[in-house]
Amino acid sequence: MNVLFDDSVHVHYGQVYVTSGDTWDLPLPRNAFRGQLNGLCGAADAGRLFLVTGLHTGDVGFRVELWDGEPTLDERWEEVVEVSFTPSGAGVALTQWAGERSFSLNLPKADYRVRYCARGMQAGRDADTLLEGPPLDVYCLAFWAAAPAPDRIVRQTSAVAEYWHSARAKGDW
Question: What is each CA distance from 5 to 65, 66, 80, 126, 165, in whole angstroms?
């Protein structure tokens, strides 16, 4: 396993993104979640991921990993979804709200399966805004080479995750 990023990321509106290729346009939720079951990691907008956090505004812990094969599911993660992702070109970045800041990820161009995991998502949602102190919610994106497959909800334990999955199912995005 190779760690591509491990730090805090500042979020607004509970959003952070993965962008790729020559265009760094941020995904829109209605495009990112089109045809998906999960409401936490939108991957329907080619070359982009739309990631939902519990915290509305402030810093969340964030880690991005690249694996040689499918990682074992860690029981510490409370929320887990999986999607497929293919970068739209060279250059992949973890990008904050409105493109305020981007963190380059050394992710080769390939077809990937992505596991988006969360811990403390409900605590982040309950706090809403965190202007100082350690992050309340922590996230991990784990990438491994795999053929494209439909998205899936692996684990859902919090009310906030249930809300976003339900909103996606109703087409409220």
Answer: 7, 10, 19, 26, 26
Do residues 38 and 151 lie in contact, with contact meaning Cβ atoms separated by under 8 Å? yes
Average pLDDT of the chain, as a whole number: 94
Instruction: Specify whether the CB–CB gap between 40 and 161 falls below 8 A.
Output: yes
Nearest to 51 by CA among 111, 144, 137: 137
Give me the mean pLDDT over the 124-149 stretch: 97
**Stretch 134-162: mean pLDDT:** 97
* Residue 112 to residue 119: CA distance in whole angstroms: 23
Q: Assess whether pLDDT exceeds 70 at residue 160.
A: yes
Please state which of the four CATH numbers 3.30.360.10, 3.30.1060.10, 1.20.1110.10, 2.60.34.30 is assigned to the domain occupying 2-168: 2.60.34.30
Dihedral sign from CA coordinates of 155, 131, 64, 95 = positive
CB-count exposure of residue 3 (10 Å: 0-12, 13-18, 19+): exposed
* Residues 11/135, Cβ–Cβ less than 8 Å: no
Model confidence at 89, pLDDT cuts 50, 70, 90, reads: confident
